[in-house]
Every structure is written in C-alpha cells, then in structure tokens.
Amino acid sequence: LHTARRNLDLEVRLIDDLLDVTRISRNRLVLTHERVDIHLIVRDVVDMLNAEIRRRDIIVSTVFDAPNPLVIGDPVRLRQVFWNLLGNAIKFTDARGTVTIVTAPGPAGSVQITVSDTGIGMDRELIASINAQDDIARHTPIQSSTGLGLGLAICRGVISAHGGELRAISSGKGRGSTFIVQLPIARHVGDVDQPAASPRSAHDQQTGK
Predict the structure, then answer these.
(1) Alpha-carbon distance 94 to 115, whole Å?
(2) Per-run averaged pLDDT (10 residues), the chain, 209 residues
(3) pTM for the complete prediction?
(4) SS3 content of the chain, % helix, strand, coil (to 5)
C-alpha cells in the first residue's frame, strides 16, 4: 500500500507538471496579482522542507539583505518556484553540505534571490539547457526518479510570467550550483493590498542540525 501510494503521488505530480508546461508554452498560465513579500515566501518554503533538511543532514542558511522584498505576483506560484529550487538543492547535496539563500537588490529595480549549494554541480550543456530562452516545452534539463524533470522549466516559465528572469551557474560537476532569480519590485503601493512585511534580517538561519 505504501509503494502504491508513493507511485500514485509521483504520477499526480508528473501530470500536474505536464499541465503546467502546457499552460506556460501556450501563454495560458493564470496568475493572481497581489503584493508578496519574498522573504516570507522563502521562510515558508524552508519550513515546508524542514523535515527533508533534517533527514538529509543539510545546513540551510538564509541571508535577507534586500531592503525592499515586495513584488507583485502569485504567492502560490512563487512558493512553487522556490520549493523546486530549494528542493533540488537539498536533493543534490550530500549530507553535511550547505545550501544558502540570499536576497539582495538586483539590477533595474528588481530583487534578486540566489539559491546556492555545495552539491553535485552542473556541466556546460546542462546549464545551457536550463538557461535556454526558446520553447520551454522542449527543455527538461534534469532527469530524475520523480518524473521527466520539468520542475526547472516550470520555474523559468513562472518567473518569466512575473516579468522576471531565472539563470543557473556552476563551476562544473562536483562544485555546486547556483540559481539566480530576479523579480521586479512592487513600485505602486496603492495598486494591490499590502500584507505585513517581514522584518529585515541580515543573517536569519535555519539549520538541519
């Protein structure tokens, strides 16, 4: 029963991913628009993955240096993006490795969120596939036991739909990976209802110990 339930969960996730890729490739992804605090999104995702962080004995640190973490976007979809990015970082990092999430001011009025790990790294071909800007449906860069590896393609599509950008960098296999998300900050306070902003924390850490 446990195996059947696990396989069913994987199939449901795969179907959801395929549907998301179809929506993105046809420009039919529906987003809500509200004022979202990226710091709160990151904290939520770390909390969601805390059991896996502890199980794998990974140290996850957050450094919140963005003075304005507010964007206009869909909080559910943004959680999906950072759940994928952090989940991959944890999955491909060995025990006692580290994952660091840093927010900072980005170029041209954006907030930049960087997810870095000390894991298996990526070669040039994989990086080029992740960063490709053409047909999203043709790019499924990470093959894994969880399906076709559509997560990063979906992340890029969701971030693009928010007017942002997702890039991957790595010094090579065995040398860790870094994913950089840039999102335009919210400029007009009166446009959307504003939730309570999170207090700025320069070194707010969550560890797997």
Answers:
(1) 16
(2) 64 60 68 94 95 95 97 93 94 95 95 97 85 54 46 87 94 93 81 39 43
(3) 0.77
(4) 40, 25, 40
User: How many whole angstroms separate alpha carbon 119 and alpha carbon 178?
Assistant: 10
83 neighbors 45 (Cβ within 8 angstroms): yes
Burial state string for 8-36 with b = 16 or more CB within 10 A and e = fewer than 16: eeeeeeeeebeebbeebeeeebeeeebbb
Tokens of 83: 């759940």
Q: Specify the length of the chain in residues.
A: 209
CB neighbour list of residue 158: distance below 8 Å, 6 or more residues apart: 24, 29, 74, 77, 78, 80, 81
Q: What is the pLDDT of residue 21?
A: 63
SS3 assignment, position 99: strand
